[in-house]
Amino acid sequence: MKSKIGNFIPPLLTVFIGAILYSVWPEPAGMLQGQVTHVDVQRNVEQIEEPIKHEEFAPEESNLAKILDRPLFSETRRNPEIKNEQEPQEPDEAFVAIPEQETSEPVKVPPPDVEFLGIMKRGEKLSALLRSNGVDEWHQRGNIVMDWEITEIKNDAVTFVNAEEEITIKIRH
Prior knowledge:
Blueprint (H helix, E strand, L loop, with lengths): L3 H21 L4 H4 L8 H6 L14 H9 L45 E8 L2 E8 L2 E6 L3 E2 L2 E6 L3 E6 L2 E6 L3
Antiparallel strand pairs: 1-2, 2-3, 4-5, 5-6, 6-7
């Protein structure tokens, strides 16, 4: 059975530790000089005697007056007219746009030069192993190979589509 003095040790220890922490803990900044509820921005702005000037970023004096005179959020706001001291130049003949000629026939893309070597199945996804220019690569439905889109992969064939054409390549045995 515990003695009566043993019952008082934990609460006394807690009070003792609390008193030590209270004496060494720094006070919040607002408590040192009364509660700070807001910052007086206007007073701080008035203390600045001269604004800092950054000539490299400042607009020219003539442009600054134009900018300050124009209302920022106005429905009639327009870009200022820029007066160029040089005369407008005529475009060079080499840069005159030539209208494109319309072609009635779409350009025919040759069928992809690939070999279908095999398939790999991961869950419901099928991947096709295709060889092109001696390089073997895995492709999935939706991939583009030599301007042809793979639209279907089966166990024994891969279907490609380009514009209105469709081509099926069977697996190599």
